[in-house]
Design a protein that fits this description.
The structure holds two protein chains of two kinds. Chain A is of the alpha/beta class. Helices cover 35% and strands 28% of the residues of chain A. In chain A, a hairpin with a 2-residue loop joins strand 1 and strand 2. The two termini of chain B are 23 Å apart. In chain B, helix 4 crosses helix 14 and helix 13 crosses helix 14. Classes of the chains: A alpha/beta, B mainly alpha.
Chain lengths: 254, 330
């Protein structure tokens, strides 16, 4: 996917300004920035959900020309919050990931069963999705979008996995599980775009970092090069110290 | 268990037999005994030309309103939505009231024109709501509902105004009509309503997974391959058609479109694969029972069916609400 001078005004306020960049298959890109920087808006624009000025292309074709089905075969999007108000079971929610693909009911069921086993959510399968805890809901939604991505792999397509703050309600164990899945998706050739608040997780996980501030790209590039003490301190309005320890780097704040 | 039954041929057979049973019971419910209905000329006339179209129309309209309720609630992702919310009932009621008062003023028989006026009113109101609602804007669905409420308010106030102009008999007519009655059922309306229901029954099953996706949210549905805007427009047009025809044939029948989908969801959840067939049978059967009661409780007089559906359904709904307790947050 390529983004060329993406801008968006909402209620007279510039929420995205001249964003240009390239998303390559096999890479994990972290979108970082303080609250209101435009991370969610940018990821929604990438998902084709917003009409903005500038151009977004997938494999040379403008995203606005894609049908909903074509789009769903090229990208999977996880929103920040779940809005489900009706009693669907977890299994029913997961099976929706197969919607864009031509699969028999038996294939759908097998895929969902395999996914449930793989993610260790057997005990949740028959539960009403709304009754799950925030973290459980998030895991199920990540699993759902991952299944959509897996079906792209099955069709020999490299897709885009857009994750808007997927780690916000996850405990440590499941944050690590998320990292493993992101790495696996990248290894399969997909491009993972992930909105993160944990800078250390970004340092560990991301191949590339896009740092946003007030709707503009402040910096873009390899995580260890972009995330300097000075820049992080300035953008996030904290005193950040980057510690290097046997090849690993991490931030501490005061 | 119910879920598995609903998607098996055996389940459909059970549903059809159950509905047929209720319809046949309703057919022979009344002051005339089955024996005299079957063995006299007048009995034959009552059975084939009055009761049969009435019972069948009750089933078709009950099923139509119930499916319309499911469609509108799912599309706007609002459990409190019902078909009247897009202005169709208000417009239809206004059309009918206008015709009743006008016909009364010039002293002509207008019984055939009232349903026509109601249908035109309903469709015009829906078109106005669609125009005002601008579904192509972000948050357009909320705007659409607000437009529907506005149109309903305008229609209600105009009907209020008309009641001042109306004579006593016209006033009684408007009141009776606004509470609904299947007394004027005939094969014409039965055919028309059945055709509309058939159209929806042909279209709707192919959309069941798309409607499930919309429940998750508009953004999710869009990125799962659903053309949300198109599906919403198609749904609203079909809901308007079903509701306008229902209102034209028998006045305003509340409650069925709002509550039957909820009862269905309590039994099988919100997945449309199960909810749609269940709502079809449930809505149809419920209205046949309500109509049977409406015409026999105070026979030879008749109760407006809207009163019966409310009296019958509201306590059941309240009981279910209490039983389900806090789990019911939709």
């Amino acid at each position: 996917m390529t983004l060329k001078q993406i801008s968006l005004k909402r209620n007279g306020k510039q929420v995205l300004h001249n964003i240009t960049g390239e998303l390559e298959g096999g890479k994990i890109i972290a979108l970082l920035g303080p609250n209101g920087a435009g991370k969610s808006t940018l990821i929604q624009a990438m998902a084709g959900l917003l009409t903005c000025t500038g151009q977004i292309h997938i494999d040379g074709q403008n995203i606005q020309e894609f049908s909903a089905e074509q789009l769903a075969k090229n990208l999977a999007y996880l929103p920040q919050h779940s809005q489900l108000q009706f009693p669907l079971t977890v299994e029913e929610v997961l099976s929706l990931a197969t919607l864009p693909f031509k699969l028999t009911r038996l294939q759908q069921r097998q895929q969902v069963k395999a996914l449930i086993n793989q993610w260790g959510i057997e005990s949740l399968a028959d539960k009403d999705f709304r009754q799950l805890s925030g973290g459980e809901q998030q895991r199920c939604q990540i699993a759902r979008t991952y299944l959509q991505l897996s079906n792209m792999t099955a069709e020999n397509k490299r897709g885009l996995w857009l994750l808007d703050e997927p780690a916000s309600s996850l405990d440590l164990e499941h944050q690590q599980q998320l990292q493993q899945v992101c790495l696996r998706a990248a290894k399969e050739g997909h491009c993972v775009v992930i909105v993160l608040h944990d800078l250390n997780q970004a340092l560990r996980l991301a191949d590339e970092v896009w740092l946003l501030e007030k709707g503009e790209l402040r910096a873009q590039g390899v995580a260890t090069e972009v995330m300097t003490e000075a820049l992080i301190s300035q953008v996030f309005n904290v005193t950040a110290r980057r510690i290097e320890n046997s090849g690993d780097s991490f931030f501490i704040y005061s | 268990m119910i879920k598995k039954l609903l998607v098996s041929p055996f389940g459909w057979l059970v549903g059809i037999l159950f509905s047929l049973g209720i319809c046949s019971a309703a057919l022979f419910l009344g002051s005339l005994e089955a024996h005299s209905l079957l063995n006299s000329e007048i009995g034959h006339h009552i059975l084939w030309n009055i009761r049969l179209p009435r019972v069948l129309l009750a089933f078709v309209i009950g099923a139509s309103l119930s499916l319309a309720g499911v469609m509108i609630q799912s599309n706007v992702r609002n459990p409190l939505a019902d078909p009247s919310l897009i202005g169709v009932s208000g417009g239809a009621a206004l059309g009918a009231a206008l015709m009743i008062v006008a016909a009364d003023l010039v002293a002509i028989q207008a019984q055939y024109f009232i349903p026509l006026a109601a249908f035109i009113g309903g469709i015009l109101a829906t078109m106005a709501v669609l125009k005002l609602g601008r579904n192509d804007m972000p948050g357009g669905m909320a705007l659409l509902i607000l437009a529907g409420i506005a149109i309903n308010v305008v229609a209600a106030s105009l009907i209020g105004l008309l009641t001042y102009l109306a004579t006593d008999s016209a006033l009684r007519h408007i009141t009776f009509w606004s509470l609904g009655s299947l007394a004027s059922a005939n094969y014409f309306w039965l055919t028309l309503c059945s055709l509309a229901l058939l159209l929806v029954c042909f279209w709707l099953p192919k959309q069941h997974r798309k409607l499930d996706a919309i429940l998750l949210g508009q953004a999710e549905a869009n990125t799962m391959g659903v053309d949300v805007k198109r599906l919403q427009i198609q749904s609203i047009v079909l809901v308007a058609l079903l509701a306008a025809l229902a209102v034209s044939a028998c006045g305003i029948i509340g409650f069925i479109g709002l509550v039957t989908p909820h009862i269905g969801r309590m039994l099988v959840g919100a997945s449309h694969r199960y909810l749609l067939p269940l709502s079809f049978f449930l809505g149809g059967s419920l209205l046949v029972i309500a109509d049977g009661l409406a015409r026999t409780i105070i026979a030879p007089a008749e109760l407006p069916i809207g009163i019966v559906t409310a009296l019958l359904g509201a306590p059941v709904f309240i009981w279910l609400l209490i039983r389900e307790g806090r789990r019911l947050q939709w």
